[in-house]
Amino acid sequence: MDPKSQRVKLNDGHFIPVLGFGTYAPEEVPKSEALEATKFAIEVGFRHVDSAHLYQNEEQVGQAIRSKIADGTLWCNSLQPELVRPALEKSLQNLQLDYVDLYIIHSPVSLKPGNKFVPKDESGKLIFDSVDLCHTWEALEKCKDAGLTKSIGVSNFNHKQLEKILNKPGLKYKPVCNQVECHPYLNQSKLLEFCKSHDIVLVAYAALGAQLLSEWVNSNNPVLLEDPVLCAIAKKHKQTPALVALRYQVQRGVVVLAKSFNKKRIKENMQVFDFELTPEDMKAIDGLNRNTRYYDFQQGIGHPEYPFSEEY
After folding, report:
1. The domain that contains 239 carries what CATH number?
2. Can you state the angle between helices 241-251 and 228-237, rounded to 10 degrees?
3. By CB count within 10 A, which of 33, 91, 191, 246 is most buried?
4. 91 assigned to some structural domain
5. Percent of the chain having pLDDT more than 70?
């Protein structure tokens, strides 16, 4: 099956490939690796590349995807309406592109504007900012009208925060997507149902659990890809547990981001279209849900827009 034809239609008429390539890497990974891995991902057929200002590798990713497909993310210290367009323009400059296909708000938790990506006080606590997300959204709508992005969406929003945007007086464009942590241990079934009912595509990050330890990851959680149920289903289909976890999302109508800088695994991830899980497999994987978050963003607790206090 040709992965390039595996696309989902967005509520604004544009299309998004079902399988995306994630470009986040920890600081110790050389930026040149982001360039090589992204180039290779495009060569083997990826047509949806997820980047973010926070990852600080936009220039390398941009080099690889010039003339291909890119999307970008508005970081939390630029949620004030007057900072939205300059932040997008800066990302476009880094990517050396005239526009992105999709631009999303990284998180509803706004941080103090400034040069620091992660502003902290003397005690190491995040310095929050207060922003009306409806105003941030209006600024994104203007970026779409200006042709700087084809589509606009959100990330890490709960259903109440989505409702706030959807019920906003004078709403011009609905979010086309909500990018959230989603995997068999956190299958987001209620949020997925809510998004589908409003014609919003759910995009899954951390679809394989957390493979990298960082200050943002809850390291006490079990390793998803070692789950016996996933491993048994993988063995039955002669596939890897990672491919089963990706395929699970594709069959639920979720757009899924696969992140790897390993060429063998990048190529392997494209095989997600080569097999199908049975209804029994899907039910068994559904049964693994335990509402476990790898990226619980505890540093954001206390912010009025902290999204994960809600059930979904």
Report:
1. 3.20.20.100
2. 90
3. 246
4. yes
5. 89
pLDDT the model gives residue 67: 41
The verdict on whether residue 14 carries a ligand-binding annotation is no
**Segments forming the whole domain that contains residue 80:** 15-291
Active site residue 248: no
State the virtual CA torsion across 57, 9, 7, 75 in degrees, nearest 10: 10
- Range 296-305 contact pairs with CB under 8 angstroms and sequence separation of 24 or more: 296/218, 297/107, 297/109, 297/156, 297/216, 298/218, 299/125, 299/126, 299/215, 299/216, 300/107, 300/109, 300/126, 302/128, 303/109, 303/110, 303/126, 303/128, 304/130, 305/108, 305/109, 305/110, 305/133, 305/161
pLDDT value, residue 166: 98
44 touches 270 (CB < 8 A) = yes
Residue 85 lies in a domain: yes
Total number of domains constituting the chain: 1
Q: Is 248 part of a structural domain of the chain?
A: yes
What was the pLDDT predicted at 241? 97
Residue 107 neighbours by CB under 8 Å, 6+ apart: 76, 155, 156, 297, 300, 307
Catalytic residue among 24, 55, 185, 205: 55
Instruction: Give me the pLDDT at residue 23, please.
Output: 76
Type of residue numbered 123:
S
Q: How far apart are CA 3 and CA 58, in angstroms?
A: 25
Burial of 115 (0-12, 13-18, 19+ CB in 10 A): exposed
Look at residue 6 and tell me if it is in a domain.
no
**Residue 260: predicted pLDDT:** 85
| Residues 224, 14: Cα–Cα separation, whole Å | 33
